[in-house]
């Protein structure tokens, strides 16, 4: 965990690393910070496509999903990145998202593939790289980003 450079990919001055041991959104962010990074902040279609192409898809019929650094935990409906910046002009929400289903979906994740499963629940109808909102306490794999200066 302490070696961020092992297994990382890079684009436009940022390095990205996938952590495959599932964590809650808050724990994922804490692990990113422990290596001098943040949960990924996706600011363009180029960056979103890069992440979609770079990180593994599932081998089954559904895809996989990874935490990204987006949440509306501070103020419902006001989506911000972990650096506290407001969600900008680029978004890639899936159809009808964010929907805050059951009133407790406050963290963003990226779907790579055409859907994902959480235990016995299956979610389909996504396009590769689309975002969804989800309860923050689900354990998911996650992508950290370290910006090079």
From TrEMBL:
Gene3D superfamilies: Mannose-Binding Protein A, subunit A. SUPFAM superfamilies: C-type lectin-like. Pfam families: Lectin_C. It comes from Desmophyllum pertusum. This is C-type lectin domain-containing protein. It comes from the Eukaryota. Signal peptide: none annotated. InterPro entries: C-type_lectin-like, C-type_lectin-like/link_sf, C-type_lectin/snaclec_domain, CTDL_fold. Residues 11-145 form the C-type lectin domain. PROSITE patterns: C_TYPE_LECTIN_2.
């Amino acid at each position: 965990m302490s070696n961020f450079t092992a297994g990382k990919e890079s684009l436009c001055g940022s390095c990205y690393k996938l952590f495959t041991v599932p964590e809650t959104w808050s724990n994922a962010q804490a692990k990113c910070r422990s290596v001098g990074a943040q949960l990924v902040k996706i600011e363009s279609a180029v960056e979103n496509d890069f992440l979609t192409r770079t990180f593994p898809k599932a081998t089954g019929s559904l895809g996989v999903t990874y935490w990204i650094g987006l949440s509306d935990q501070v103020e419902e409906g006001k989506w911000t990145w972990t650096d506290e910046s407001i969600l900008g002009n680029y978004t890639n929400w899936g159809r009808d998202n964010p929907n805050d289903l059951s009133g407790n979906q406050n963290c963003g994740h990226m779907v790579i593939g055409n859907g994902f499963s959480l235990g016995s629940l299956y979610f389909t109808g996504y396009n590769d790289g689309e975002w969804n909102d989800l309860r923050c306490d689900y354990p998911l794999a996650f992508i950290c980003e370290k910006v090079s200066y």
